[in-house]
Amino acid sequence: LDQAVADRQPVVLDLARVDLAFDRLTLMRELPGAMTGGQIFLQYQPKVHVRRREIASAEALVRWQHPTRGLILPGDFISVAEQAGEIAALTLWTLRQVIWDQKRLAVEGHDLTLFINISGLLLADIAFVDAACEIVGDGAARIGFEITETAVIRDPDSAIRHLQRFADIGVTLAIDDYGAGLSSLAYLKKLPARELKIDKMFVMQLTSSNRDPLIVRSTIDLAHALEMEVVAEGVETPSALALLTVMGCDMVQGFLISRPLGFDGFRRFLDENSLFDGALGNPTFARP
Ligand code: C2E
Ligand code: MG
Ligand code: MG
Ligand code: MG
Predict the structure, then answer these.
(1) Is the dihedral of CA 168, 196, 256, 62 positive or negative?
(2) 258 lines ligand 1 (CB under 6 A)
C-alpha cells in the first residue's frame, strides 16, 4: 500500500479475495464449536467389488451442516481446519465415529471396513499417530485409512514408519487420488498399502478420452504387480463400469453405485443390496 501511494497508483482491492479470506477466518473461528455442537457429520459412500459382486467397504466423507450457510463440503473446510490447527481433532472425532458406526453395522450383519481420509499433515504429527493408534486399539472394528502419496513425499521415512504402525494394528491402508498429484513409483513400492484408488480425473472421461483408458489400464497392471487391489473412484456411467471390468479393476466407487449417504440411508442401502447381484436398481450395473 505504501508503495502504491508513493507511486501514486490507484489501490485496487480484489473484493472476491477479501471475501474469501474473511470467510476462511470466520469458518476457522466457528469450527471448534461446530465439532462440539453436532454440526459435523459423516456420509458414507460404498466401494463395490466388481468380481465378488458385493459391497466391499465404504468411505466416510465429512460434512458441515452450518446453521446459516447450509451444507459445507470438505473441499471448503478441510484446508481451513488444517490452517486452524484443528485437523487432528477433526480426524480423531471422525475416527471415533466410524469405529462406533462400524460396530453398529457389524452387529446388524454388515461387517464391512469403513475408511476415513487422513490429511498428509497428520502423518508427521506424532501426537496424532499415537492418539489414532490408541483409539483403534485392539482392532476390533474393521477400519481403513485413505492417504495421498503427496503426504508421504514430504518426510518419507517417518510417514512410512507411521503407516507401518497403522498397518501393524490392523488398519487397511489405501492410496487415495492416485495419479492426481506427484506420484512416485519409489514410494509406491515401499508403502504398506493394500489398495490403490485411481483418481476420478482419469475415470470420469474414461470412455470419451483417448489417453485415460491407457493410463487406467497400466495403473491397474502396476498395482496388481505390486499385489494391491485397485479402486476406481468417480464411476458415473455404465460404460465406464463395463470398461473397468474388462480392464480387471477390482473395485468401483461413484455416483453410478451410490452418492455419499447419511448413516441411516447407508444402512438402508446395505439392507437393500446385501446381495449385490442383480441389485442396486440398475440392470446395466448388475450385468456389466
Ligand atoms: P476423496 O477422498 O477423493 O473423495 C472423493 C470425492 O469425490 C468426494 O467428494 C465424493 O463425494 C466425490 N465423488 C464420489 N463419487 C463421485 C462421482 O461419481 N463423481 C464425482 N464427480 N464425484 C464423486 P467430497 O465428499 O466433496 O470430498 C472431497 C475431498 O475431501 C475428499 O476427496 C477427501 O480428500 C477430503 N475429505 C473428505 N472427508 C475428509 C476427512 O474426514 N478428512 C480429511 N482430511 N479429508 C477429507
Ligand atoms: Mg478418499
Ligand atoms: Mg479419492
Ligand atoms: Mg479424489
Answers:
(1) positive
(2) no
Closest CA to 115 of 167, 57, 162: 57
Which residue is associated with the grid cell 441389485?
279
**Rounded Cα gap, residues 122 and 226, in angstroms:** 26
Please indicate whether residue 288, judged by its CB atom, sits closer than 6 Å to ligand 1.
Answer: no
ipTM of the complex: 0.96
Ligand number nearest CA of 204 is 1
- Rounded Cα–Cα distance for residues 143 and 59 (Å): 10
Among 84, 99, 75, smallest CA distance to 32 is for 84
Span from the CA of 13 to the centroid of ligand 1 (angstroms): 33
Q: Measured in angstroms, how far is the CA atom of residue 230 from the centroid of ligand 3?
A: 12
Q: Each residue's pLDDT tens digit in the chain (288 positions)?
A: 666 556 666 666 676 776 777 788 899 999 999 999 999 999 999 999 999 889 999 999 999 999 999 999 999 999 999 999 999 999 999 999 999 999 999 999 999 999 999 999 999 999 999 999 999 998 889 999 999 887 777 788 899 999 999 999 999 999 999 988 777 777 888 899 999 999 999 999 999 989 999 999 999 999 999 999 999 999 999 999 999 999 999 999 999 999 999 999 999 999 988 755 444 444 344 433
Q: Choose the residue to mutate in 44, 98, 117, 175 for probing ligand 1, maximizing ligand atoms within 8 Å of C-beta.
A: 117
* Atom of ligand 1 at shortest range from CA of 233: 15
